């Protein structure tokens, strides 16, 4: 069983920065795609950023140029650097580990960390 633990959320002013971290247990991290999702009150969860096992990245249009996802396989950790934060970035951010196992998709989720952007 994989456990994911996020940290780094908090309250920040518009225009500020935060870095989220997510540490994974187990030994499948390096072979997995890591994603950050977010869910704002009253809205559906949305995929924010992804990094594959070969470190290819992808971003939602709303965060391109402001957020950067990265991974450190030696530490089983994925990061989300968030710059130029806006009020609309306020949400609970979830770390997700995704892999294919015998042809089936497996997803593991963290408990989420709150990010609030407000003056």
Polypeptide structure, described:
The chain has 119 residues and is mostly beta strands. The chain is 0% helix and 54% strand. The chain is built from no helices and 11 strands. The strands form 2 sheets. Strands 2, 4, 5, 6, 9, 10 and 11 form a 7-stranded mixed beta sheet that branches. The model has no long low-confidence stretch (mean pLDDT 96).
Question: What is the gist of this entry?
Answer:
The chain has no helices and eleven strands.
Keywords for this structure?
seven-stranded mixed sheet, mainly beta, 119 residues, four-stranded antiparallel sheet
Describe the secondary-structure layout.
Elements: E1 4-7, E2 10-12, E3 18-24, E4 33-39, E5 46-51, E6 57-59, E7 67-72, E8 77-82, E9 91-101, E10 104-109, E11 113-117
**Shape summary:** globular
Number of E strands: 11
Characterize the biggest β-sheet.
7 strands, mixed
Uncertain residue segments: none
What is the subunit arrangement here? Answer: single chain
What structural class do you assign from the helix and strand content? mainly beta
What share of the residues does DSSP label as strand, in percent? over 45%
């Amino acid at each position: 069983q994989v456990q994911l633990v996020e940290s780094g959320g908090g309250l920040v002013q518009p225009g500020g920065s935060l870095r989220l971290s997510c540490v994974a247990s187990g030994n499948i991290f390096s072979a997995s795609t890591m994603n950050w999702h977010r869910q704002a009150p009253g809205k559906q969860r949305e995929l924010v950023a992804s990094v594959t096992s070969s470190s290819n990245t992808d971003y939602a249009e709303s965060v391109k140029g402001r957020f950067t996802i990265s991974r450190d396989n030696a530490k089983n950790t994925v990061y989300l650097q968030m710059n130029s934060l806006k009020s609309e970035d306020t949400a609970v951010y979830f770390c997700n580990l995704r892999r294919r196992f015998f042809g089936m998709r497996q997803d593991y989720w963290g408990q989420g960390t709150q990010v609030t952007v407000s003056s």
